[in-house]
Design brief:
There is one protein chain. The chain has 1 helix and 20 strands. The strands form 7 sheets. The protein has a 5-stranded antiparallel beta sheet with strand order 4-2-6-7-9, with no helix packed on it. The protein is elongated. It is mainly beta and 192 residues long.
Amino acid sequence: RLKPSTKRAYTVLTPAGKPADAARAYLATPTCVQDVDVDALPDEDGWTIPTAVAGADGVLTITEPGEPYRLAIAHADGWAEVNPLTLDVNTPVKLTPWAKATLHMWAGKRPLENVMVEPQSGFSEDADCWINWSSFQYSDATGTVVLPHLKTEKDHGIMASLVRDNRLDTLAAPNWYYIDARWSEHPGETKD
């Protein structure tokens, strides 16, 4: 027997407190791990289709599933994870700003082009609902790769897994490499 569905509206605000027009919500449940493609921001859906998209007023409405759920909310200005059991229905969701990193890939004195970098800022789990914030970026001819949408939390590693350069196997080796970068309260701060 079918049960009537319940709708729930969320008001999403940018980190500056303005309505998050075009914020995308992705639904995660215990039966559905949600992969969020942050490379498609700000105006594409990428390979993950959102459950709902906010209007100019920052309001998005979802049909609640018949099981526990969380929302991953992505916008050009920031991100949020929402557990409806811990958020009052009248409380707006304020996005956390994205972190950004610029990496330089070199083998000796030679820049490595086309190195794929996969930030690992995410699998997060709450209420048995898993969310993965996913991104793949490639270094340019100077060996530079910019990671514009990194999910950050204090004391949370924000990236890892650097894969080999497909063009220069002998320089980068056909292995995975790991970079450990940490969240900082001071933008622009450099850490080893």
